[in-house]
Amino acid sequence: MTVKSTPPRVLVLRCPDLPGAALPGAALPGTGGSGGAGWSGGGDEDFGGPEYDGAAARAFEPVVAVVEEFCPRVEVVRPGVCAFAARGPARYFGGEAELARKVAEAVAQSGVACQVGIADGLFAAQLAARAGPTGVLVSAGETRTFLAGLPVGVLGMPELCELLPRLGIETLGQLAELPPAEAASRFGADGKLASRIARGLDPRPLVPRPPAVDLSVQAEFDPPVGQSEPVIFTAKALADQMHVRLAARGLACVRVGVQVHCANGQELSRLWRHDGLLSGLAVAERVRWQLDSWRPGSGQEAGDEAGGITLLRLIPDQLVRATGRQLALWGDSVISDRVARAAIRVQAMLGHDRVTQPVLAGGRRPADQVLLVPFGDAAVPQRPAGRPWPGQIPAPSPVTVYPAPLAARLTDASGQLVSVSGRAQLSAPPAWLSVGSGEGPGRSSPRPATEQVRAVTAWAGPWPVTERWWDPPSVCRQARFQLATDDGSAWLAVLQEGRWLIEGRYD
Q1: What is the reported pLDDT for 97?
Q2: Would you say 173 and 148 are in contact if contact means Cβ atoms under 8 Å apart?
Q3: I need a labelling partner for 120 at 20 to 30 A (CA). Which of 126, 159, 330, 435 fits?
């Protein structure tokens, strides 16, 4: 059987200003933050970027309901972006331009600003939705021309997008001129995928026809459950079971249907798509988004009003040929999957926000450089780690960073408290360090609650820094030191408002 290589016509609706979905500081990849000529502002979140929270899912649910009036099979790419096949609806509503206009007007009447794009294939349609203030319609067969002038950064493959410009390949048009076999041999699997995208083809060939056997999986809840966590935990196990069935037939899934049934007969169904293959953890995340969108308010669990959830069903809706995956040399992919299963199990027992993972952030203080987010979520720090931070503590960073700085005293040989002048001059060399267990800020006395006096054997500093000097209520002036003591410990000490504090320890 011959599979048609031209991608189907796809309409993508994007809501860039959706509450909770906008990502601060993001810009179109490869444009240096300007977005490029003809492009609207917005982030690269549509192409494998950071994930969204439950607030975005809840805000996007009414928009999806409006779009479903034009096509019943709407794919939610992520909260804020949805898509559907445009061929049938365009014939019914009088053409693609008329369809796009009616969809945009219907969504605008609900009070949400949107962009609508139509092109060959999902990838190009997402870019078309981001082109111009309202999106553009790319004529059939013109997708490759539309993509040709775009920077390779829109591919969303960081390593490849950094390498290609060094080789003189700066646009998708230049990448498309490279023979596919050569792109695959030079750049591996990412190069093969990028070559298909640049030529206006679907990222992966679709399976010619769905398998005859039923590959869906489901779980019943008796008695019905009113909380989301047990359902999300079950979704991870069901997704793993579904992947085992697919792998046995040489298939993989990029789109999955999630059906949730309640005790009162209510049913909530959604189609979820992912640019990459949908792992078990990715499926569980999308089930959580779906349940979050169902909540009438932030204080109510999904399914409470409906008498609880009685059944969860996962249906592999769009299948591709499984090409396998390359495990790391030391098997860290397997270990990560074990960690994911354990974390989701604990979340099911204690709550989603009780299991967190660290995310690197930017800042001058060590405590500002790590952000804790719930496991399975991804957050974009307001202070990105990749930006320059003048005045940041030089490497190495402290191994232990205290949530609340410890009260301390740094004295000279005569027992007088060491001070630092406005010109960063010390009153005397540090000689003794007393570290206590009491919190520094807010204490009436600078003396630690429980003193442990140590002799200072070496020190470096001071490194003065003044943050937010333009905002008097939040201005912060510090002088930082690195201290080594006779017991073999090393400390990060700061002098702030006349008080000595310990922010971290080098183990």
Answers
A1: 92
A2: yes
A3: 159
